[in-house]
User: Fold this.
Amino acid sequence: MTNTTPALQINNLSKVYGNGFTALKNVNLTVPQGGFFALLGPNGAGKSTMIGIISSLFKPTEGSVKIFGTDLLQNPSIAKQYLGIVPQEFNFNQFEKVEDILITQAGYFGIAAKEARPRAKKLLTALGLWDKRNNKARELSGGMKRRLMIARALIHKPKLLILDEPTAGVDIELRRSMWEFMQQINEEEKTTIILTTHYLEEAEQLCRYIAILDHGEIRVNTEMKELLTQLSIETFILDFKKPVSGEVSISGITSYSQPDNQTLEVTLTEGESLNGVFQQLTQQGIEVSSMRNKANRLEELFMRLVEQGIQSKDSMKEAGL
Assistant:
């Protein structure tokens, strides 16, 4: 990475609300320029609080936030120029026309309508909304409103884009088209992207970096490929070319099951060979037509980390800590 200034630098960030609830505890996080970064965590982990602080909705109790080297608390107007945010909730004027929503947003950043219109056309076209430009926002479907939120966040060409559950409630086909658009602006425009999502396959497919937040603390902060190597147990589904009669017999692996006469589920731990399973099937005259993971690898690891966190918290309660 040639650029040394991080897109986002969070140092010792803490947030304690007026009722005494601690949402963030000395969080440190660095997001490199040009990165595609996943910020994951269960409900109540502190993700919304962190995004609220970055977007200036909340003030931190302690700590600092820098966006491309600019301190958010000391120079908010400059820092916000670098930032585009797509929140979970629709927060535009439902009675305003689609194109006008983008032009109005551009005006907040000092961009004249003459300059904003070509940018609005480009974004609305890329997101499949150009033919809806004269429609009022309230007339759009839920998926179209999601895309409008993304277009609005990008109208001033931010260097850092935060997407907070951008595909919630969006159908599979539309979700994948949005994935393609996110990858495009990350690769072609070098826009740094931070993604929060409950669809963990999105994080695994899109993101190079990942941080997992739990109970207000960063539990994991690494590259995606590094994190996935920590997964020691994996379950595969094997589909046979033809139905088999009787039971399949496999040895030398953790476990297996046969849901029907054309499918086999095998669970392997680290060191166990999938090739050995194929060899045994071949010996039994069984050909495999396809293979897939039963569960998303990241989801398995994420749930394990959350469970460990819950167990650790329970242990502390039992100890009176």
